[in-house]
Amino acid sequence: MRVLFASLASPGHTYPLIPLAIAARDAGHEVHFAAGEHVHAPLAARGLRPFRPADSFYEIYAEDLEPELARLRPDLVVHEWGLPGAAVAAHRAGIPGLWHGFGRMIPAGIGLELPTGVAGAADRPHVDICPPSLQDKDFLATAERIELRPVPFAEPGELPTWDGRRRVYLTLGTAFGTPELLTTAIAGLARLDAQVIVAAGRVAPAELGTLPAGVTVRAWVPQAELLPHVDVVVHHGGSGTTLGALAAGVPQLVLPQGADQFANAEALAGSGAAVRLLPGEAGADAIADRAGMLLRDSGHRDAARAVAAEIAAMPAPDALARRLPEYAR
Questions:
Q1: Is the pLDDT of residue 23 over 90?
Q2: Which CATH class is domain 167-312?
Q3: Across 301-316, average pLDDT
């Protein structure tokens, strides 16, 4: 069977699809991946045949993908929530398809909307990688869902050397980080008796100035490899970091900045697996206080481990890969 995956050209949208794409390839399916060139390297390294439809850079529109569907003639298209155009193109071509989520269902008003007026595209089943206890309740009640365990994906790399103390990992992702907030968070976390590891993302490390002792800053870290070895994660509330930390059973301090991050932070706080600080609250003192509390308190860690157990019980990508022909009929 030939399967076409499609995503926006960013790690936050592409990486959640990669575990299923790899599993589909390993199950003997011919896999192709439509995305902008920014994410081609990790896809090509795993034999997922990436290509750029038309002149797309980040977004892919229906008219970009339609000629590629005629060329490849896939049996199934797996399109993530950020690409309604892919769903519309597949529907027009009469090709079965699946939505693939990247976390909680998209909140209204953040600039990502599922298609309206094209019922055959909007009503396709959803591959849902969010544990049900954290998923939007209306979505749980109304959507046709295919549960899939979220498997953190990142390019492999060398982990920072451990200095023997507890570890706090700080990241603001690749889209929302600012030097001001990172510097503030570093100043707060440096007060703790912990090793602080920072992934600077879009912020150049040089913009952060002189670093306090015990703080390691890198432009990028192998997050999927690091998360099982940290004690607290301080982050922006992006879906990838949220689910990765939950899968590792690590409590979180969430500093939401935009997009779906406020909804993620609210759900995490409600589960007991995290605490949050809203933009007007996230000073160095408050960050030090909340992160220090998470290091000391077992209740939030127990809640995070309970969600980790829920995630571990969800179907693995290889199980769903074997079932993909059912959805191509």
A1: yes
A2: alpha beta
A3: 98
